[in-house]
Please model this.
Amino acid sequence: MDAPERLAELSHRSALAGAAVVADNLSIRFGQGETATAALSDISLTIGQGDFVSLIGPSGCGKTTLLRAIADLVQPTSGLLRVNGMTPEAARLARAYGYVFQAPALLPWRSVARNVTLPLEIIGMGRAERQAEAKRNLDLVGLGDFAGKFPWQLSGGMQQRVSIARALSFKPSLLLMDEPFGALDEITRDGLNLHLHELWARTGLTAVFVTHSIPEAVFLSTHIVVMSRRPGRVVEVIESTLPRARRLEDRETPEFLALSKRVRTALHDGHGHA
Amino acid sequence: MTQKILPIVTVLIAVLILWYAAAVWLNAPQAEALMDPDQPHGLWALAQACWSMDRPVLPAPDQIASALIDSVFGFPLSSPRNLLLQAGYTAATTVIGLIFGLIFGILLAIGIVHVRTLDRSVMPWVIASQTIPILAIAPMLVVALGSMGVTGLTPKAAIVAYLTFFPVTVGMVKGFRTPDPLQLDLMHTYSAGEMTVFAKLRWPAGMAFLFPSLKVAVALAVTGAIVAEMPTGAQVGLGARLLAGSYYGQTMMMWSALVMASLLALAGLLAVTLLERGVVLMRGGRL
Model:
């Protein structure tokens, strides 16, 4: 089967299955010739609509690269990648996703509200409309009262919540998050995890979440994709056995701990193979 | 408040004392020659003579002050001998030249940041342009433009623009490049074009670099305007007064023009600072 045919089949399949993201034999290499390094190797993965999928693995396993490829920030070297049945570029142009970076990346000269309206300003939405939209999204992350503040007046955790509100601006069906809480302290992180979980449960978004924290991955996800070190491969996709609604206390249950152990074992296996 | 003012006042008093001493030291030979050799005179009388000469080598501060006040209030505003009128000519040259230098400097920076070839090819020329002494190029430019029928304010403003675009270009190239890769990625996820990235990200980020550049440019602009006024007969402006003063040995005239020039530069800096404060205020207290 040649490439266009395969592509047509995949697009068809992902549309039928309602998949948010389909990767098939996806490989990404950086650089040319001798110095080229393989970041991702033969990734095949399907992320269903409404799933919360965590990508977990050691540093340098390419989890961020995979997320960036979905967002069309990195080009695949070979293989196929479809986002909502479209190429990543088409999905980006269709504003199908919101992206949350490792750092909040807020513009310091804009107020919180104007940071959240930035993407809407760029697509040329009217002032009143985008302000209403920003208020809605800020309320969603619990920062409705901070609209007039400036980023430097907010804590790190609040800044990251603003960046989540901003990522929701296009009303995307897909939320891509690259270790958004990695730089935060544990208590703040717990709070934000719970908040994110509620947001996801309420909105029915598809979420792809990069992390290197096992408890975070297990707590948030419906599916955990365990990856191995360079070149990045998928070791195992673990489907969560936990109920959809979750509380922080659930992290003490035997079920949670058993799931964490499975993830840890898979991580060790992946490490061993590499 | 006293903590702020006290050091300033101390330095000012020290400068004044040194100045009066220097005036005695520099003017003494001439003052002594003017005094009656038969009359015995003490050191104090000599000092007083040194501080009240008509054409001293170094006028005393109070002489400069009274000359300055006299040249501002002693003549009607329409008289060419009014220093305020002359300062007005220089100010007009400065402001118009500065505006053109600012526009050209920013446009050049935009080109350098966005076009790779310009980055490689133009920057060395921009730096080379500033290694040419302005004193050498100013008369040539004024004469060359004059021969083409361009006279008056335009050639002088061109010289000011030539001097002022440089700090603006250097500062703004740096400023437009401050957005980090994360912010650029963010704009990419919005599928924002280069124009949008510039308007929403590069330009506001560059603001922090605009004002320091502008302050350097203001100081250069006043210098440039005065230098530009000197060739071709030194008709109007503070530069013309400086040159005329030096022709006729009128040190007081030169000094009052000098003081006026620094007041002009100070006013310019104050205007930039106020503008900066306004922008900072709009941005919630930080640039």
In short: Residues 3-96+172-273 of chain A form a domain with the Rossmann fold fold (CATH 3.40.50.300).
